[in-house]
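Notes from hallway chat w/ T.B., transcribed later so I don't forget. T.B. wanted the structure written out for a chain they're using in a teaching module, and asked if we could keep both sequence and C-alpha cells in one place. Agreed to drop them here.
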Amino acid sequence: MKTLKNILTLLVTAFILTNCEKEVTVDLPDPVEKIVVEGSIESGSPPFVTLNKNFPYFGTFTPADFAGNFVRNATVMVSDGSTSAQLDEICWSELTEEQKEFIAQFAGGALPDSIPDGFDFCVYTFFSLNPPIVGQPGKTYTLQITTAEGKELSAVTTIPQPVPLDSIWYEQNTDPDYPNLYRIYARITDPDTLGNYYRYYTQRQTEPMYPGFRSVYDDLLINGLNVFFPLDRGIFKGADIDFQTYGYFEANDTVTVKWSTIDTHTYNFWRTLEFSTNSGSPLGGSTQINHNINGGIGVWAGYCVSTLQTIVINP
C-alpha cells in the first residue's frame, strides 16, 4: 500500500535529518514564528501533509527539538471538489511496536537500526486501506488547515495530465579516472502547448527516493520538441557533494526514476527553493521563495506520476 510505503520513506528522511549537525557561529535573531506546510498528493495516492514551526537557519537542534516542532492536533481537510475528508494525524511515538514493524514490512523497507531518544515524526494522511480521496490527473485539490489555536491556512493545487518519458538509459563515464561511473539519460516528447512542468526523483538500490540538485524543469525552450537530457542522481539535501562524481551511478546499481508533471505553483516553489538552497549562504543575497500557502509558508503540491521505471546498470 502506497500510504505505508510513503510513511516509512518520510520517517527515514526525518531520521536522517535529525542526525545532521551544522555548527555556524553567525549570530542572527530568530525569525518570526510561522507554520511550515509540506503537503503533496500524487496520482493514485492519498494526500500527505506535515506541519512544523520554522527553525532558525543557523544553530543546532536535537531530535527532541525536531519532535517538539510539529504542529499537533490540527484539523486538516482535503477536498477534490466533490468529496471533502479530514486527514488522520499519525505520530511515530504513538504507534505500537507491532504497527511499526507492520509498516516497515508492508512497505518493503526496514526500520533504522537505532532511533535517538526523543525522536518523533508526525504526518497527516488517511491511515486506511480505502482512503476517501486519492490523486487523479486533471483534478484540483483544496487544502484547509485549522490549528488547535484557531490559526487558518489554505492552499490549492492541481494534478496535471501525464507526460511520460519516452525512454531512459545509461552511458558510461568517459573520464578514465572514474571508469565505474554511469550517467542516466532520458528522452521526452513535450506537448506542443506551452506550460508543462516536471519534477523527478531517483532511487539507488533500496535508498529513499531523492530529488536531483535541480529537480524541476519547464518547457520554455523545449515546447513541442523531442529532446534527451541527463538525469542526475538525486541526493539528500543535507549531504556533502563531491562534484567529481556528482550525478553519477555505479556499475551494478539498480536505479528507479520517478518522473512527474506538476502545476505552475508547484514548479515555482521548488524552482525558487532549490535556487536559494543551492546558491549557498543566505547572506550572499536574497531569493524570494514562491510559497503557495495562504496564512503560512511551504507548499501544497500535486504530482502526476507519469513514469516510474527501474533499470539495472549492467556493464
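Follow-up for T.B.: The helical segments are 2-18, 63-68, 97-106, 264-278. Might be a good example for the class.
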